Fold:
Amino acid sequence: MIRLLTLASAIALIPAAAPVAAQDAAAIRPIDGTRLDVVATGEVTRVPDIARISTGVVTQAPTASDAIRQNAAAMNKVRAALKRAGIADRDIQTSSLNLNPDYRYQDNQPPQLTGYRASTDVSVRFRDIAKTGQILDALVAQGANQINGPTLMIDKEDEAMDEARTDALAKARARADLYARAMGKRVGRILSVSEMGAARPAPMPYAVAEARDAGSAAKIDPGEQAVNVTLSVSFELQ
Structure:
């Protein structure tokens, strides 16, 4: 009985194995024509829609506790200014908090402690670039004496990358058609596609002055940033 069941099982498996073998044969079907390898780069441009800055306050006081207390009070005003400007909590992140002693140095004299310096910096993300200059001025007015940026970026960068990939594939096909016509052939199947490189836009930094006159909000020009992807595509020409 055991032998009969084993034989029956083996017979039952034979029809199921045939389609798999057929699929494997189709997958490795040899090239019936000329192989053409094309390298193409697709590119799309986007207007940056996010600005990021680093801002904070440096305070000095005779004692460490006074320096920290004054720094905290100043930073509360800075955070309040950001909230009034409509910046969400998720777009504000503390990046550094430091307390260091200050010394006075004189020739042939040991360093003399003169006080303490406290500093706090936050990273802020703006989703409305047009208001960046106004917000920076409001920060300075509220006591922010350290500002770096803004750095301009693209929010939905992955979507732009996918558009660049589609553009690269279309360019590769158009180039393959050109070669095929010149050779009196036509483009058949795509044999392979590989992504050789993708260039994401580098953040665009802008220098910001540490102080401004009232009402002199800086104008931020976002310009455009390019996203590109390079593909290597192999075609069969028939």
About this structure: Confidence is low (pLDDT under 50) at residues 1-18, 206-215.
